[in-house]
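Retro notes, item 3 of 5
We never archived the inputs for the fe (ii) ion complex last cycle. Fixing that now. Sequence and ligand:
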Amino acid sequence: MSTHPTADDELVEYHTTSTGNRIAQGPLTSDTSQEALIPARAYISPEAYSAEQESIFAAGWVWAGYAHWVPDPGMVHPVTIAGRPVLIVRGDDGQIRVFHNSCRHRGMALTEEPVQVTRRIQCAYHCWSYNLDGSLAMTPYFTRERKGRTGPDDRDALSLLPVASAVWAGMVFVNLAAPVDDDATAQFAEFIAPLTERWSHIDFDRIHLAAEREFDIGANWKLVVENFLDFYHLPFIHPQVGPVTASLDVDDEVLAPHIIGGRYPHGAAGKAAKTDDALPDLGQVAAELRESQDIFCLFPNALLFLESDWFQVIAFDAAGPERTIEHMAVFVDRAAGGEDHAVNRKALTDVLFGVNEQDLPILYKMQAGRHSPASDQTSLVTHWDQVTAMFQQRVAQRVGYGRA
Ligand SMILES: [Fe+2]
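Structure as it came back at the time:
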């Protein structure tokens, strides 16, 4: 059954402000809520981190990497999901598959660095090798005979163990808890449907990487998400996005319990980057959507921004209780990938990276504050923090924090 809203079956109620912006009716009821949905210790403790890794990152669909990390057949890119090493592999057939990064003989990780192989992925220990579809290829001297190609009777039983995966909008998603079959494909389609429907006017097959950067941040992953969902700070921390009236002009948006965020009806961060010589749109974008910016957290670890002519992803690896590694990528239309658009592309990506850099000191200080016992007595503001509270409530329910 589909859980995303239709026009007359909204997931949440919305209030409208006098300036016409929509506020989601989230968990916060009075003006401020001083009862923490997530305790401060959950932002610093190794135990809470482990619990979240298991009950969130190992329990459903999560962003694992970018398709452009393995552009060609034979490319193998290792990543760690919920503490488990996995390999993202581009096959001879062009398909991306994901496998547990563990040789079926003695369990050694096959590679810890991105590699390009010609035909097979080989374990360095006893030289067992695997085809790009994960099937067992070679097992030298398996029977201790010096001659002949020998191997186990049941080769299929020793294929690399697959992980359920899906590719959408240039991103690779995995689900460590799902079976690897057609059900997983259908499950992912349902997971992503609210976004594919909302963004049906965008041709994600045409996206072209404009720039990518990694940010290694000394803050808990939940603060990264909460800051992303915090529209209140924009005029104070990112003054270049426009006058206060423009940066406060944002609607809360709840597409599904796992897809929450907002919308700038008239654009925000991208505005500063727009020039007279605009980049081509990412599809057939209706006139009323040309200035609109969508901002969605695809729970738990993909933060998405979409304007008519660019798509930005800040996806992250929750690397430790107080460490998050962001992989930020900005995509434009394929037609904007050439030299003639180089100046505009750089102007756009400079602005977007600059906005993200402005948030770094905020995240460090938010993390520092979580070590204070007073952090359990902070307040969320009903008028601004409903989507933040919805995110916290989802985490709290999964892990079993507090009153949730
Ligand atoms: Fe920010």
